[in-house]
Amino acid sequence: MGPGPSNVHPRVLQAMAAPTIGHLDPEFLKLMDEVQELLRWVFNTQNRLTIPISATGSAGMEACFANVFERGEKVLIGVNGVFGKRMTEVAKKYGQIAVSFEKEWGKIFEPDFIRVVLESEAGIAGVALVHAETSTGACQPLEEIGKICSKHDVIFLVDTVTSLGGIPVDVDGCNIDVCYSGTQKCLSCPPGLSPVTFSEKALEKISKRKTDIESWYFDLSMLQKYWTTGERVYHHTAPVNMIYALREALLILGEEGLETIFARHNLNSRALLSGMTALGVEPLVEEQYRLPELNTVKIPEGVDDKKVRSTLLNEYGIEIGAGLGPLAGKIWRIGLMGQSSTQKNVVYFLTALEQILKKMGVVSEGGKAVKAAEEVYGE
Amino acid sequence: MGPGPSNVHPRVLQAMAAPTIGHLDPEFLKLMDEVQELLRWVFNTQNRLTIPISATGSAGMEACFANVFERGEKVLIGVNGVFGKRMTEVAKKYGQIAVSFEKEWGKIFEPDFIRVVLESEAGIAGVALVHAETSTGACQPLEEIGKICSKHDVIFLVDTVTSLGGIPVDVDGCNIDVCYSGTQKCLSCPPGLSPVTFSEKALEKISKRKTDIESWYFDLSMLQKYWTTGERVYHHTAPVNMIYALREALLILGEEGLETIFARHNLNSRALLSGMTALGVEPLVEEQYRLPELNTVKIPEGVDDKKVRSTLLNEYGIEIGAGLGPLAGKIWRIGLMGQSSTQKNVVYFLTALEQILKKMGVVSEGGKAVKAAEEVYGE
């Protein structure tokens, strides 16, 4: 119940443990096609270039920036948490001009703000935002901003590491041009791959680059030759077993259905926060922008942050996340991602937390939290 | 029996399928320490910075070049196969001057040649060679060249993707400063990680860089803060289950013992080549430079390369590798790596190949190949 990795379904672990076959084996090539099709489905896109990068989510971020922008290009980057900040660091590594606009952690960027910046600042090549900021639990609305980017003909790049498979991600509907995610959050697959997708507009921009892409491992022009049916030109040895795992995880998502999954995430989050509120622990993020898969709550005054987290881990076997950056020591981050988003986890966590807070003398009577959660489930 | 991935021990697959825990979980941090210690052992080094990069072997190559050399620096790169050529491509991506010296594929570089180049060419920052060239089956001797690099105070960078765990790799004894490998060859672990190790000389060079490292994901200054005991600063989400697998694979190597493993690789290769020779199929590489884990043989005149390989795969379930580059259509590459290096595999492969060649009318009487191999085993 931390900010990821989430719990992995036994079927995924089992699939991953199948014997390793060659990365050019005809059976594996079929599996690659299937994974691409499943990724298009979960990203809600028709983009032909929709593949998993052979490394974790931050590598997906790097692959996106490295390919789609060039040295000296200006990218507007929204920074309202760790991962927006990381985008600026990655862009700088590639000699791009990161025009970062900051917002208080836990808040989101308004479309009007983006519009004004795009209208007043010349030579912007793209806008980059984090859909689900794992460090704050805030959900950035994308639809309006996608339209604005489209109108201004700039690239819209979105981090969906913690949103994909937990809340709706609509790449085509939101005019997203470049999008990366991770496997270890709401897809409930072990960490090790980063699904990415590129619109035709993004591919056209890449094809018109004046300079070579400054990375070999992340060079899409080579990667797509390996992933494209009929070509299959060897680039690097794909992490075969991780691809098995990703396929199985996506199949499990398909069996449950995205709408059902989103409703489950929503329900469990509401129950959790209702229980927390009953304990006097308040959510950080305004209701309409809360991520159901990553619940951030303010640590009540006088409560020992570290002691609560270590007791949860050592006595109850529950991991939750600490606050980062300006929120360090101020919030807890409780993940209810993918397979971890269950009523059982919510009830068990609330019971554990209530017991701990009671021992600390912060809460007097018991059972309030679970009762509040159960009321939500009973609605 | 291709050029990798090799067969993975069931214990490794099982270990990989253990439940995913957090990348900052105290239990996982212990496991990271253990993996670093095991990697130092298999690399034969005391280097403190000895870690797995969270991506496949080619990413390890990229991480090494990106960190240790700077834009504009000259690196001598030996090109006698695919992976030497890849080194030049990676170096160029990072704006380094790849001074490539070519040699016929299947041959090796003589120490005297390197010495002469270093004496005559000014401003060389490093020498980069491939220990075990997977595309040719040639083994590059390193010891003398390491001494020469040391004398000239240049960085010695070595690719040990296909050698580590199959033949002796002696990082400290050969004065290797920067070394990367892969998990899916003689370590018999699925692909997905790239073990790397850096000498103090390499780390000192990195610490004196005038320019920032031009990659975020591969930036060692951040990676080492995550891997160093006591620091553990979050960088990216480690591929937790792959690390489980790597530990188990290394433990299995430890149980058998490196000397025993090297002897096994040697014996099986000799048996294989003896059987092949009996079929009129000759090795490509001169005896003293042959890699026992990757056996390259010349396809006899008139034999249909693709038909043999597809029959092996479809009728016998055996994968072997095709020739690449100038050797395409001219050689086969038969891997006997790690867990795949067994007498059973040798005998089964020879039986299958003999049957196929007999049907093609290339071989007349049967049983020659296995008999020749068994003589080697009976010695």
Write structural notes for this entry.
Two copies of one chain form a homodimer. Chain A is of the alpha/beta class. Chain A folds into two domains: 10-255, Type I PLP-dependent aspartate aminotransferase-like (Major domain) (Aspartate Aminotransferase, domain 2, 3-Layer(aba) Sandwich); 257-378, Aspartate Aminotransferase, domain 1. Chain A is 43% helix and 14% strand. Chain A is built from 13 helices and twelve strands. The first copy, chain A, has helices at residues 10-16, 26-43, 57-68, 82-93, 111-120, 143-151, 200-207, 220-227, 240-256, 258-278, 305-316, 343-359, 368-378; strands at 49-53, 74-79, 97-102, 124-130, 132-133, 138-139, 155-159, 178-180, 194-198, 294-298, 321-322, 331-335. In chain A, the strands form three sheets. A seven-stranded mixed beta sheet of chain A has the order 1-9-8-7-4-2-3, with helices on both faces. In chain A, a hairpin with a 4-residue loop joins strand 5 (132-133) and strand 6 (138-139). The first copy, chain A, is globular and about 65 Å long. The mean pLDDT of chain A is 97. The interface between A and B is large, with 56 and 56 residues.
